[in-house]
Write a structure and sequence with these properties.
Layout: H1 15-28, H2 41-48, H3 52-64, E1 68-71, E2 75-78, H4 83-108, H5 113-127
Antiparallel strand pairs: 1-2
Length: 135
């Protein structure tokens, strides 16, 4: 399996959360298909040069969230049941997390709520043309 995941220890976001968000995003976008096997904990830890306990924690979180299932001796797989629901929920969670991080960063820089809202609206207008408002 090609390297799908990367981590950055300097972001301030725990590595296990970076991994869980990347897996959720990959499932939501169809990069990882239902039933597809994930790298083993040992392999992914080696590839990313992180502690295997970090990867194991990410996999436990993903299993708890219903994104993956683990079979002893076989490995971890993207869940095949309710794949569409899981993907939609995962995508929403990833987007909410990214927006939360952006708002937190805005606040930490001393921007006022009104300034943050204006910046958010400019970004929305940039990425979503006015014709998208009809949906």
């Amino acid at each position: 399996m090609p390297a799908l995941f990367t981590v950055d220890p300097h972001t301030g976001v725990p590595i296990y959360l970076q991994l869980t968000e990347q897996v959720k995003r990959s499932v939501a976008l169809g990069v990882l298909s239902p039933g597809e096997q994930l790298p083993t904990v040992k392999q992914l830890a080696s590839d990313l040069i992180v502690n295997p306990n970090t990867v194991a924690r990410a996999y436990r979180e993903l299993e708890r969230d219903g994104v993956i299932e683990t079979s002893v001796g076989r490995g971890s797989f993207v869940r095949a049941d309710h794949a569409v629901d899981t993907a939609a929920t995962a995508l929403s969670e990833v987007a909410a997390s990214a927006l939360n991080t952006a708002v937190r960063e805005s606040k930490s820089m001393g921007l006022r709520r009104k300034q943050t809202v204006e910046i958010f609206h400019r970004a929305l207008d940039q990425w979503y043309p006015p014709s998208d408002d009809k949906e």
